[in-house]
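Notes from the 1:1 (GR / supervisor)

We went over the backlog. Supervisor wanted to see one worked example end to end before approving the batch request, so GR pasted a single chain during the call. The sequence is below; no edits were made to it. Supervisor asked that the structure be written out right there so they could see what the output format looks like.
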Amino acid sequence: KGMAAPETAVATLNAMKMLEPRQIKPVSVETERIIAVLDETIAKLEMSSLIPHIITSLDKFADALGPEITTNLMEHQKLSDEMENLLSGLEEGDSVRAEEQQGCLQLLKQRLKCSVRNVLRLFLANPQLCQALKYGAWERGAPAEVFIKAFGEFRNFVLERLLTSPVEEEEKSQFMDDIYLRIKENSETITALQAELAAVIQTREEEIHKKDNMIKDLKTSIQDLTKDYKVGIQQIKEEGEKQQEAELQTSQARCAVLEQDIKELEAQLKALVLEHRASELALRKRKRRLEMEIVNWMQKYDTDMGEKKAEYEEINAVYTEEKAQLSLLMEKHGMLLQEYSQIEEERRICKEKEEQALKELATRNRAATRIQAFWRGYLVRSFFKSKRKKGKDKDVGKGKGKGKGKGKKAKK
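Structure output shown during the call:
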């Protein structure tokens, strides 16, 4: 098993190399000539498929195409139209007429082929024009695209066959036989596996059948529930329709009342419009009258302002003179104010000194009063203290005499 994997990989790699398309240049002149003919045929097919589109835009490309190509394209268009008319009017009933039409048709085909060859010859004589037309924004028909694509595949197939040697062809044939044998073996294996799969599927189908029975029972119960649900919905629907009818009647009555209200409001609106128009007319008249009054007042204002301006100029001259006098007075006032400030400062200093002296006098008086009071209190306390001391001495002498008498009595 360890060696089988590399061998399988090598075989797969060889198979891929053998089956992949060859991209080797032609090695012989004959091969190059054959491929050149096929490429030229593909180019002609591409250009011939563009001829109908070029004819439809002939006015646009007339200058680029030239008079000769344009003339040939117009003749080709005429032949195409004749061909279409002949094919559309082809009769099947009269055999003589049909034979004549077939003859005309064959002749037209030959002329049309010659026309296509001439147009292609003129196109291919101008490679730049061919390139410009080929890479233009053209859309070929689906049949032309399919045919060109199939012819390109045929060209690639021919090139591959020409580039494949007889030995390579034999190896490829042997390889395809091996692949066929492997496919046959794989088919047998697939058949056996399919039999096993069928047995498994049978078992699964039996289980699914059981589940289907359960599902059928559930569906039956669901259907019963659905019927009950539909009955309930029908009842609700009937009740809703009744309620809708009642609400519709109420709505219609209300709409009638609203329509009556609308008519009354429209009548009121018309009356108000007439009234407002009359009031607007009166206001417009008043506005014009006020405008006239404003104009008169403005004229009067201009007159008064002229007088006021003259008066202002006179007052301003007087004001300027008085202002000069005021500046002189302010200078004098400043000097006087400075002197007054000095006098006031001196007065303040004198007053502070007097107040300080009065405070010191009051302090001394309070101190003397307190000293005198303290001294008097001291004298009074000393007097009473001496008296109290004398009295205590007398009391002590009396007490000693009484104590001795008591002691004698006790001894007795």
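Supervisor's comment: The two ends are 156 Å apart (CA to CA).
Batch request approved.
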